[in-house]
């Protein structure tokens, strides 16, 4: 079982986008039994909320389910629950290391791609959910290749 958690700041825009896309890719390959997939935010400001309406609309456009997804904060206990900590930007990496403690391997999603820019832009500020969708799709595709 491979246990993957996607991490951003608020867990309403980028990491739910990546979680839903990765779930969908895993489902397409009939690999659901081999994975535990979740997402979390380094801040708990939106705890209990559904993903941002821009993320929901973009995923709906691509017929990708967001069922059962609600924002939650990353906690120290996640350190034991997951093996792969996949962040959207460098500040997420720093905050994740601080929250988890220890020496878990923490990656940025775009580290797996050939893009020179390794940070997934935050559509909470840019408003560009299509750009974030495309980058998450590319990163998640590479992540699935890496883990299979
Ligand atoms: P996310 O985006 O980290 O991709 O979920 C944000 C969501 C909420 C806020 C900032 C970024 N906020 O300031 O509430």
UniProtKB/TrEMBL annotation:
<feature type="active site" description="Proton donor">
    <location>
        <position position="122"/>
    </location>
</feature>
<protein>
    <recommendedName>
        <fullName>protein-tyrosine-phosphatase</fullName>
        <ecNumber>3.1.3.48</ecNumber>
    </recommendedName>
</protein>
<dbReference type="InterPro" id="IPR017867">
    <property type="entry name" value="Tyr_phospatase_low_mol_wt"/>
</dbReference>
<feature type="domain" description="Phosphotyrosine protein phosphatase I">
    <location>
        <begin position="2"/>
        <end position="146"/>
    </location>
</feature>
<dbReference type="InterPro" id="IPR050438">
    <property type="entry name" value="LMW_PTPase"/>
</dbReference>
<dbReference type="InterPro" id="IPR036196">
    <property type="entry name" value="Ptyr_pPase_sf"/>
</dbReference>
<feature type="active site" description="Nucleophile">
    <location>
        <position position="8"/>
    </location>
</feature>
<feature type="active site">
    <location>
        <position position="14"/>
    </location>
</feature>
<dbReference type="GO" id="GO:0004725">
    <property type="term" value="F:protein tyrosine phosphatase activity"/>
</dbReference>
<dbReference type="InterPro" id="IPR023485">
    <property type="entry name" value="Ptyr_pPase"/>
</dbReference>
<keyword id="KW-0378">Hydrolase</keyword>
<keyword id="KW-0904">Protein phosphatase</keyword>
<dbReference type="Pfam" id="PF01451">
    <property type="entry name" value="LMWPc"/>
</dbReference>
<comment type="similarity">
    <text>Belongs to the low molecular weight phosphotyrosine protein phosphatase family.</text>
</comment>
